[in-house]
Specification:
This protein is α/β, with parallel strands linked by helices. It has a single domain, classed as Maf protein (Alpha-Beta Complex). It is built from six helices and seven strands, in the order E-H-E-H-E-E-H-E-E-H-E-H-H. Strand 1, helix 1 and strand 2 form a beta-alpha-beta unit. The structure holds thymidine-5'-triphosphate. Keywords: Cytoplasm, Hydrolase, Nucleotide metabolism. Pfam families: Maf (PF02545). This is dTTP/UTP pyrophosphatase.
């Protein structure tokens, strides 16, 4: 019989928490307040770097034995420019005005740190891209959406899972990746078996 490892989600995002709960994983949330920054240039490298930093920041505050630590970061990319969370309502307006009527990319980077019983770790960082097509929005619609407060804590100033569903034409790729976590990728990774036939979830 195997003993299952503790899984730590290193995120303050309620969406990430909900997606982990949705698939029935048992996990704990630990939030680190250490600063994050990146040096990479390409979007997929940026989100991988940030997700690694988030996971490492959380791991540095824990006794990391027989444990899986997950970090994630989501950005919206439009014409090569990165849109993070809006600073204020005018910033949200600027982002939404540019996103409407066309396609953009959403990248989420995920890092899974897998610690064995001796505290030795394996690192797996991966980025997932989804293309999102947004319908035309007039200025009144954009302001109405901003006044709903939904955009303010989200990359690109929108939440596909909320009122913004009204403006989603179509997507190509993983929906959950846009919400903040490519959840089936994570599950398949941690359930996957290594050469000894052992799942990441099992303690040695
Ligand atoms: C594009 C998009 C983003 N988002 C959210 C997911 C993330 O919470 C947020 C992107 O910001 P992040 O910096 O990736 O994450 P966070 O600061 O919210 O949480 P933490 O760093 O503690 O893990 O935007 C949505 O909820 N829906 C969407 O459609």
């Amino acid at each position: 019989m195997c003993v299952v490892k503790r899984i730590i989600l290193g995120s303050a995002s309620p969406r990430r928490r909900e997606l982990m709960e949705q698939i029935g994983l048992e996990f704990e949330v630990v939030v680190s307040h250490k600063e994050e920054y990146y040096e990479s240039v390409l979007p997929e490298e940026i989100v991988k770097e940030l997700s690694l930093m988030k996971a490492e920041n959380v791991a540095s505050e824990l006794e990391t034995k027989d444990m899986i630590v997950i970090g994630a970061d989501t950005i919206v990319v439009l014409d090569g420019r990165i849109l993070g969370k809006p600073k204020d309502e005018d910033d949200a307006f600027y982002m939404l005005k540019n996103l409407q009527g066309r396609a953009h990319e959403v990248y989420t980077g995920v890092t899974i740190l897998n610690f064995d019983g001796n505290g030795a770790r394996q690192v797996c960082s991966h980025a997932v891209r989804t293309t999102v097509y947004v319908h035309d929005m007039d200025e009144e619609e954009i302001w109405r959406y901003i006044k709903s407060k939904e955009p303010m804590d989200k990359a690109g100033a929108y939440g596909i899972q909320g009122r913004f569903a009204a403006y989603i034409d179509k997507i190509e790729g993983d929906y959950y990746n846009v919400v903040g976590l490519p959840i089936s990728y994570i599950y398949q990774q941690i359930k996957g078996r290594d050469k000894r036939g052992q799942s990441l979830l099992e303690r040695v």
